[in-house]
Protein backbone atom coordinates (compact mmCIF):
# COMPACT_ATOMS: atom_id res chain seq x y z
CA UNK A 1 0.00 0.00 0.00
CA UNK A 2 2.80 2.43 0.89
CA UNK A 3 5.52 0.80 -1.25
CA UNK A 4 5.96 3.79 -3.58
CA UNK A 5 6.63 6.30 -0.81
CA UNK A 6 8.91 3.93 1.11
CA UNK A 7 10.91 3.26 -2.07
CA UNK A 8 11.16 7.00 -2.74
CA UNK A 9 12.34 7.76 0.79
CA UNK A 10 14.85 4.89 0.73
CA UNK A 11 16.50 6.43 -2.35
CA UNK A 12 17.61 9.28 -0.08
CA UNK A 13 17.72 7.82 3.45
CA UNK A 14 17.39 4.20 4.52
CA UNK A 15 14.53 3.44 6.88
CA UNK A 16 14.60 0.43 9.17
CA UNK A 17 11.54 -1.84 9.17
CA UNK A 18 10.56 -0.34 12.55
CA UNK A 19 10.83 3.20 11.12
CA UNK A 20 8.78 2.18 8.09
CA UNK A 21 6.07 0.93 10.46
CA UNK A 22 6.09 4.18 12.47
CA UNK A 23 5.86 6.20 9.26
CA UNK A 24 3.15 4.20 7.52
CA UNK A 25 0.99 4.14 10.66
CA UNK A 26 0.93 7.97 10.43
CA UNK A 27 -0.08 8.10 6.76
CA UNK A 28 -3.33 7.63 4.89
CA UNK A 29 -4.11 6.96 1.25
CA UNK A 30 -6.73 8.97 -0.59
CA UNK A 31 -8.27 8.39 -4.00
CA UNK A 32 -8.86 11.64 -5.86
CA UNK A 33 -11.22 11.95 -8.82
CA UNK A 34 -10.37 13.95 -11.92
CA UNK A 35 -11.09 17.68 -11.34
CA UNK A 36 -11.36 17.18 -7.56
CA UNK A 37 -9.44 19.69 -5.47
CA UNK A 38 -7.02 18.81 -2.69
CA UNK A 39 -6.75 22.50 -1.84
CA UNK A 40 -8.70 25.60 -2.80
CA UNK A 41 -7.60 29.20 -2.56
CA UNK A 42 -8.56 30.62 0.84
CA UNK A 43 -8.28 27.29 2.68
CA UNK A 44 -5.45 26.65 5.13
CA UNK A 45 -3.22 23.85 3.83
CA UNK A 46 -2.81 21.16 6.50
CA UNK A 47 -1.65 18.26 4.32
CA UNK A 48 1.30 17.34 2.13
CA UNK A 49 0.62 14.87 -0.68
CA UNK A 50 2.87 12.21 -2.20
CA UNK A 51 1.48 11.22 -5.57
CA UNK A 52 1.23 7.45 -6.00
CA UNK A 53 -0.76 7.55 -9.22
CA UNK A 54 -2.06 10.33 -11.41
CA UNK A 55 -1.38 13.97 -12.10
CA UNK A 56 -2.18 17.27 -10.39
CA UNK A 57 -1.94 20.91 -11.26
CA UNK A 58 -1.27 23.80 -8.93
CA UNK A 59 -2.77 27.03 -10.18
CA UNK A 60 -3.67 30.56 -9.18
CA UNK A 61 -6.62 32.68 -10.16
CA UNK A 62 -5.15 35.85 -11.65
CA UNK A 63 -6.59 39.33 -11.18
CA UNK A 64 -7.93 38.99 -14.74
CA UNK A 65 -9.94 35.91 -13.75
CA UNK A 66 -7.65 33.46 -15.56
CA UNK A 67 -6.53 30.14 -14.07
CA UNK A 68 -2.73 30.19 -14.42
CA UNK A 69 -1.00 26.82 -13.99
CA UNK A 70 2.23 27.26 -12.07
CA UNK A 71 3.16 23.66 -11.36
CA UNK A 72 2.32 20.06 -12.15
CA UNK A 73 2.82 17.01 -9.98
CA UNK A 74 3.06 13.41 -11.15
CA UNK A 75 3.91 10.01 -9.69
CA UNK A 76 6.61 10.05 -6.99
CA UNK A 77 6.40 13.83 -6.54
CA UNK A 78 5.17 15.75 -3.52
CA UNK A 79 2.69 18.57 -3.93
CA UNK A 80 1.40 21.08 -1.40
CA UNK A 81 1.34 24.80 -0.66
CA UNK A 82 4.33 24.99 1.68
CA UNK A 83 3.68 28.64 2.52
CA UNK A 84 0.22 27.89 3.92
CA UNK A 85 1.33 24.51 5.31
CA UNK A 86 4.10 26.10 7.40
CA UNK A 87 2.44 29.42 8.29
CA UNK A 88 -1.14 28.34 8.88
CA UNK A 89 -2.29 31.24 6.68
CA UNK A 90 -4.97 30.83 3.98
CA UNK A 91 -3.60 29.57 0.69
CA UNK A 92 -3.43 31.63 -2.48
CA UNK A 93 -3.23 28.44 -4.54
CA UNK A 94 -5.43 25.62 -5.81
CA UNK A 95 -4.37 21.99 -6.22
CA UNK A 96 -6.59 19.94 -8.53
CA UNK A 97 -6.42 16.43 -10.01
CA UNK A 98 -5.87 16.43 -13.78
CA UNK A 99 -6.80 12.74 -13.92
CA UNK A 100 -8.07 10.12 -11.48
CA UNK A 101 -5.29 9.89 -8.93
CA UNK A 102 -4.15 8.42 -5.64
CA UNK A 103 -2.05 10.16 -2.99
CA UNK A 104 -0.42 9.43 0.32
CA UNK A 105 -1.52 12.08 2.83
CA UNK A 106 0.91 13.42 5.42
CA UNK A 107 -0.99 15.62 7.87
CA UNK A 108 0.75 18.64 9.37
CA UNK A 109 -0.04 17.60 12.94
CA UNK A 110 2.11 14.44 12.64
CA UNK A 111 5.12 15.94 10.83
CA UNK A 112 7.01 17.16 13.91
CA UNK A 113 6.22 13.96 15.78
CA UNK A 114 7.62 11.92 12.88
CA UNK A 115 10.76 14.08 12.73
CA UNK A 116 11.31 13.44 16.42
CA UNK A 117 10.75 9.67 16.08
CA UNK A 118 12.60 9.32 12.74
CA UNK A 119 15.16 12.18 12.55
CA UNK A 120 16.43 11.06 9.12
CA UNK A 121 13.07 12.10 7.65
CA UNK A 122 14.17 15.72 8.12
CA UNK A 123 17.09 15.01 5.77
CA UNK A 124 14.75 13.36 3.27
CA UNK A 125 12.39 16.34 3.24
CA UNK A 126 15.35 18.73 2.97
CA UNK A 127 16.51 16.90 -0.17
CA UNK A 128 12.96 16.98 -1.57
CA UNK A 129 12.66 20.71 -0.80
CA UNK A 130 16.05 21.46 -2.39
CA UNK A 131 15.05 19.66 -5.58
CA UNK A 132 11.68 21.44 -5.70
CA UNK A 133 13.33 24.82 -5.08
CA UNK A 134 15.89 24.16 -7.83
CA UNK A 135 13.13 23.19 -10.26
CA UNK A 136 11.21 26.40 -9.47
CA UNK A 137 14.34 28.51 -10.00
CA UNK A 138 14.90 26.88 -13.39
CA UNK A 139 11.25 27.48 -14.28
CA UNK A 140 11.62 31.19 -13.44
CA UNK A 141 14.82 31.28 -15.51
CA UNK A 142 13.02 29.71 -18.49
CA UNK A 143 10.04 32.08 -18.20
CA UNK A 144 12.32 35.11 -18.48
CA UNK A 145 14.86 33.75 -20.97
CA UNK A 146 13.02 31.44 -23.34
CA UNK A 147 10.10 31.98 -25.67
CA UNK A 148 6.99 29.86 -25.26
CA UNK A 149 8.12 27.80 -28.23
CA UNK A 150 11.58 27.24 -26.72
CA UNK A 151 10.04 26.24 -23.38
CA UNK A 152 7.73 23.78 -25.14
CA UNK A 153 10.62 22.28 -27.16
CA UNK A 154 12.74 21.93 -24.02
CA UNK A 155 9.91 20.31 -22.08
CA UNK A 156 9.05 18.02 -24.99
CA UNK A 157 12.67 16.88 -25.36
CA UNK A 158 13.09 16.21 -21.62
CA UNK A 159 9.64 14.86 -20.73
CA UNK A 160 7.86 13.76 -23.94
CA UNK A 161 5.46 11.38 -22.14
CA UNK A 162 4.50 14.17 -19.74
CA UNK A 163 3.82 16.62 -22.59
CA UNK A 164 1.56 14.03 -24.26
CA UNK A 165 -0.24 13.28 -21.00
CA UNK A 166 -1.24 16.82 -20.00
CA UNK A 167 -4.33 18.36 -21.65
CA UNK A 168 -3.27 20.97 -24.19
CA UNK A 169 -5.04 23.91 -22.52
CA UNK A 170 -3.28 23.19 -19.19
CA UNK A 171 0.12 22.82 -20.82
CA UNK A 172 -0.44 26.09 -22.69
CA UNK A 173 -1.33 27.83 -19.42
CA UNK A 174 1.83 26.48 -17.78
CA UNK A 175 3.96 27.70 -20.71
CA UNK A 176 2.22 31.08 -20.85
CA UNK A 177 0.98 30.62 -24.42
CA UNK A 178 -2.44 30.16 -25.98
CA UNK A 179 -3.81 26.67 -26.69
CA UNK A 180 -3.99 27.68 -30.39
CA UNK A 181 -0.28 28.53 -30.48
CA UNK A 182 0.54 25.26 -28.74
CA UNK A 183 -1.53 23.43 -31.34
CA UNK A 184 0.54 25.08 -34.10
CA UNK A 185 3.77 24.08 -32.34
CA UNK A 186 2.61 20.49 -32.08
CA UNK A 187 1.54 20.44 -35.73
CA UNK A 188 4.96 21.75 -36.73
CA UNK A 189 6.62 18.82 -34.92
CA UNK A 190 4.58 16.17 -36.73
TrEMBL record:
<protein>
    <submittedName>
        <fullName>Crp/Fnr family transcriptional regulator</fullName>
    </submittedName>
</protein>
<feature type="domain" description="Cyclic nucleotide-binding">
    <location>
        <begin position="15"/>
        <end position="123"/>
    </location>
</feature>
<dbReference type="Pfam" id="PF00027">
    <property type="entry name" value="cNMP_binding"/>
</dbReference>
<dbReference type="InterPro" id="IPR000595">
    <property type="entry name" value="cNMP-bd_dom"/>
</dbReference>
<dbReference type="InterPro" id="IPR014710">
    <property type="entry name" value="RmlC-like_jellyroll"/>
</dbReference>
<dbReference type="InterPro" id="IPR018490">
    <property type="entry name" value="cNMP-bd_dom_sf"/>
</dbReference>
Amino acid sequence: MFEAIITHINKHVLLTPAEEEILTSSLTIRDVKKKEHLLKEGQVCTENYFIIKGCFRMYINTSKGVEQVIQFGIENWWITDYVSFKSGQPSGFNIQAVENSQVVVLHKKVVEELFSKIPKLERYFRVVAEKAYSAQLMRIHYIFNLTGEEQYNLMNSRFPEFVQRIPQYLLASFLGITPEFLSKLRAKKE
